[in-house]
Design a protein that fits this description.
Layout (H helix, E strand, L loop, with lengths): L2 H12 L11 H9 L16 E8 L14 E5 L2 E3 L1 E7 L20 E3 L10 E7 L5 H17 L6 E6 L3 E8 L2 H9 L13 H7 L6 H4 L8 H13 L3 H22 L6 E7 L11 H16 L2 E7 L21 H27 L10 H13 L1 E6 L10 E8 L5 E3 L3 E3 L3 H4 L15 H5 L12 E7 L13 E2 L13 E10 L7 E2 L5 E13 L4 E13 L4 H7 L1 E10 L4 E9 L4 E8 L9 H4 L4
């Protein structure tokens, strides 16, 4: 969708009704819809799968090539020629030209949205500082190189910065204000990984760090390097399989969160990932991990996110050759350790190159110029062509469909995602909550609902969240589930305050299908969590919202959005956060917004704003 049209849509949603943002009769209608009542709306439904491929074309000097036409490209999928039905060239902004975005209108108190402004017609860039998979010594180097990049980056370059450790956090949203970005980096300190082993031996060898074997050997009797390196390998292997499993899961979950956050921004998104040591065999450890990896890479591709891994360890060298190997003939000792070191580095390079290739990015590994690598990644992803086609083989058979793009002109290099997994959306989409109502943290829903996660933007939403009344209550709203995870052993008690959540969702983002009787149907799920300050879920509400709609009120729904209503109880005392998500069960797409309760607790209650409710 063109960015200007998208902004008009959010302005329409934000401009509905009274100053509070809703017409006086909207909440009852929304409540009825949440229970499955009929409300008229028209659907825009794709009858065939559309594959979108962003292609970066460079010459022999790695400079972008402009002016190509659709007829210059040939696209094949699994060897079969495809007809290009959509074509567009994207050119980076001129140096020094600030990226202009339409400003968001001021929103009244109690009104929130997941709309994210972005510059029209250009790619956006996300920097991910990965402390989960990077040792502290390398993190300091990354921060220094990032400051160097921001000092020399052209004005108008638009960047957002995220950090990952035990969870993903936003350090700064999209901005071209380099001063603000530098301040965000300066506020970011190094932190020990929640899971990564940090022994000196592992830093020296297991992860290609800067420590030398000689430094680690201090005090080792006999100075047998083969024994020292073998010991290092045992320490590295001591990291439990469970920890590696969790490390991989958190990494892929963060990628999923970023994809959901970036989905509502049109065009290409370049995810520049500063990563050190990470779980080996990325995405291929267990059948569950493989499924999660496939779902994540498909989601990144669907959201047009290209991953650019940057190895933060610099040029990795094996210090072991300076010693002698008394066991070299047998393959043990120093020689064996050297082979293991080289194989480990090769495996990690293959895996990082794999995720880059499957998303249309490029891996910058084994380099000491991180600042230059960032600049290359941004330049690489700023000039590109977008091709789209409907595949001749539309079977969703779970197989990998290989994409090939060729040019008639010789001597040019092309970078694009090399394919996608043709998984059946009905089979892989998360069909709501699991037993007990708590989404799996493996699934996209779990990622979208995690405390502090960036807002999901696949479904554009406007929310009004207000106290339902001025009084406190001793019991929670009917249907709320207090302490949905009993293992947390939380001590939750009243009194409670009830909050009313009213949503207007963009109908174009929800799949609404025609029925034989001339009506239109959709199937969604509305989920609200209440988190305490420590990130524990203290209360939740989950409601199916299915619609059997007529066409008569199409114009109104296009103007005001699909209405939904939910109520949630929050303990009256303490620090809490409300996170609400709307899930389209047909497509596995989400909108999600998180709200500090402190920002709405003292607002005029709905019962006073809307008499007679």
């Amino acid at each position: 969708m063109v960015r200007g049209v998208r902004l008009l849509a959010v302005l329409a949603l934000l401009g509905v009704g009274r100053a509070a943002g809703f017409a006086a009769d909207a909440p009852p209608a929304a409540a009825a819809l949440g229970q499955g009542a009929s409300v008229g709306v028209q659907t825009i439904k794709a009858n065939a799968q559309l594959v979108v491929v962003d292609v970066v074309v460079t010459d022999s000097h790695q400079m972008p090539v402009h002016g190509l036409k659709a007829s210059d490209f040939a696209v094949m999928e699994n060897g079969a020629a495809q007809q290009v039905t959509g074509f567009e060239e994207h050119v980076s902004l001129a140096p020094g030209e600030a990226a202009k975005i339409a400003p968001m209108p001021p929103m009244p108190a109690g009104i929130f949205t997941n709309f994210t402004p972005a510059p029209p017609g250009s790619a956006v860039n996300v920097l991910l500082l990965d402390a989960l998979n990077t040792h502290m010594k390398d993190q300091s180097y990354v921060l220094d190189e990032l400051r160097e990049f921001l000092k020399n980056t052209p004005a108008g370059t638009r960047v957002a910065i995220f950090a990952l450790n035990n969870r993903l956090v936003m350090l700064h949203g999209f901005t071209s204000d380099l001063t603000a970005l530098k301040a965000a980096v300066d506020r970011t300190g190094t932190s020990a990984s929640a899971l990564l082993a940090t022994t000196g031996a592992e830093d020296a060898v297991g992860n290609g760090g800067s420590l030398t074997v000689a430094k680690v050997m201090g005090g080792v009797a006999g100075g047998d390097m083969g024994q020292v390196i073998a010991s290092m390998g045992r320490q590295t292997a001591a990291q439990s399989a469970d920890a590696l499993e969790l490390q991989l899961n958190i990494t892929l979950t963060a990628m999923s969160q970023l994809a959901h956050y970036l989905a509502g921004i049109p065009g290409r998104k370049n995810l520049i990932w500063f990563v050190g040591s990470y779980p080996e065999h990325f995405g291929s450890k267990t059948p569950q991990d493989e499924a999660l990896y496939r779902a994540t890479t498909n989601l990144l591709a669907r959201s047009r996110v290209s991953v650019y891994p940057i190895g933060v360890q610099g040029l990795t060298t094996n210090a072991a050759p300076i010693g002698n190997d008394p066991s070299g003939v047998s393959g043990r000792g120093l020689a064996g350790a050297q082979r293991q070191f080289a194989q480990g580095n090769a495996d990690q390079s293959v895996e990082l190159n794999q995720i880059a290739a499957e998303t249309g990015g490029h891996a910058y590994l084994d380099t000491n110029g991180l600042s230059a690598a960032v600049g290359k990644a941004i330049a690489n992803g700023a000039n590109y062509y977008t091709l789209s086609y409907v595949p001749t083989d539309a079977r969703q058979n779970g197989e990998f469909h290989k994409i090939q793009v060729k040019l008639a002109q010789q001597g040019l290099s092309l970078t694009y995602r090399n394919g996608y997994y043709a998984d059946d959306a009905d089979a892989v989409a998360h069909r709501g909550t699991e037993s007990g109502g708590v989404p799996s943290q493996r699934g996209a829903l779990g990622a979208a609902m995690m405390r502090g996660a960036p807002d999901a933007t696949e479904i554009l939403m406007k929310l009004q969240v207000l106290p339902a009344s001025g009084a406190v209550e001793q019991a929670v709203v009917k249907g709320n589930v207090v302490n949905p995870n009993p293992a947390a052993k939380l001590k939750i008690k009243g009194p409670y305050r009830r909050y009313a959540i009213d949503i207007a969702a963009d109908a174009k983002d929800i799949e609404i299908t025609p029925t034989a009787d001339g009506h239109y149907e959709f199937s969604t799920e509305l989920i609200t969590y209440v988190y305490d300050a420590g990130g524990a879920v203290v209360n939740m509400a989950v409601e199916k919202a299915r619609g059997n709609l007529t066409l008569s009120s199409y114009a109104n729904m296009r103007r005001v959005g699909l209405p939904f209503h939910q109520e949630i109880s929050v303990p009256a005392n303490g620090e809490y956060y409300i996170r609400t998500s709307l899930l389209d069960l047909a497509t596995d797409r989400y909108g999600a917004v998180e709200i500090p309760v402190a920002s709405i607790a003292k607002l005029t209650p709905v019962s006073a704003a809307l008499p007679g409710r």
